[in-house]
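Input record (one chain):
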Amino acid sequence: MTVSKEGASWVFGYGSLIYKVDFPYLRREVASIHGWQRRFWQGSHDHRGTPERPGRVLTLTESPGAQCVGVAYLVEESVFEHLDHREKNGYERAAVSIELAASGDQVQGLVYYAGPDNPAFLGEAPPNEIARHIAESHGPSGSNRDYLLQLEAALRDLGDVDHHVQELAGLVAGLDERG
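The corresponding structure, as predicted from the sequence alone:
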């Protein structure tokens, strides 16, 4: 078990925290958490959509045996003020065990998770419906489509294959081609 630097904590990113790093960190490691999978089941009223037309962004769902690859950051406690603001709209912090890829060490950390009981939760839908929703949504942080495609590219750079993300990216690309 790796011990964190005093006054610092690990935070696990599985979505935009992988590629949109707008906060200082002490250390960055490719990492994974077990028993969770990413899903586009959370509504975004504030970043990739609007209150009238929320976009779809990621949350985690429990899935025994699953592995979710992302990035772990060791951050000073003061960074959580920024992250709490960024990850609002239904997200809360949850404690997780994080496996650092390079060393295989397990560290205790936090992840932002939006459960099904939060008011912005959209839930499961057929992939073609989720893709159409993503293709049509836009908010203050940009298009929902860009969020999906930037995530797909970031996961590819990490050497990860997430079938949910890849399927949705392919469906959105197909919608783009059809106009």
